[in-house]
Amino acid sequence: MVSRTLANDLRLAGVRWRPASGDTFVIAREGFEGDVFVVSDMTIESHEFETGTILGFNGTTEWALDSVALEDALWLPQEHQLRALLGGTFRSLVRTASGYRVELSVGGEATIVEAEEADDAYAEALLTLVYAAL
């Protein structure tokens, strides 16, 4: 799972989330620091309204939490989701002695990004791609 810091960096860089079953997220509010949630058709459903997207908590009376606005939820993208967002720019993922290295093509040039975890390497690569497009 991508780190919260990188997830927030992705949000600030403009990477948008359309919640789907299986997605993981945290609630960006005090008191929820250690909790990771998973969108599921059984317990947490994404509801689209004219006013925005709401994540509805079904059958979670022990939490006393009915719903949370999408802007209060921080998406923690998974490895396959980050790789999909990299699209055709992704070249390879390689295990190194200190972690993982992602190679992508940015503007026709090979670009290397490294991190301790594969998810974080993908996230750093996506940030590199987003910032190169600016």
Report on this model:
With 134 residues, this protein is of the alpha+beta class. The chain folds into two domains: 18-76, no CATH class; 78-133, no CATH class. It contains three helices and nine strands; from the N terminus they run αββββββαβββα. It has helices at residues 4-12, 79-86, 118-132, and strands at residues 24-27, 37-38, 44-49, 52-57, 67-69, 73-75, 90-95, 100-106, 109-115. It has a three-stranded antiparallel sheet with strand order 2-1-6. The protein starts with a helix and ends with a helix. The model has no long low-confidence stretch (mean pLDDT 89). It comes from Lacisediminihabitans profunda.
Brief overview, please?
The chain is of the alpha+beta class and 134 residues long. The protein has helices spanning 4-12, 79-86, 118-132; strands at residues 24-27, 37-38, 44-49, 52-57, 67-69, 73-75, 90-95, 100-106, 109-115.
Task: Give me the secondary-structure topology.
Blueprint: H1 4-12, E1 24-27, E2 37-38, E3 44-49, E4 52-57, E5 67-69, E6 73-75, H2 79-86, E7 90-95, E8 100-106, E9 109-115, H3 118-132
Antiparallel strand pairs: 1-2, 1-6, 3-4, 4-5, 7-8, 8-9
Shape: elongated
Strand order, largest beta sheet? 2-1-6
Low-confidence stretches: none
Mean pLDDT: 89
Structural classification: alpha+beta
Defining key terms:
alpha+beta, three-stranded antiparallel sheet, 24% helix, 2 domains, 134 residues, 9 strands
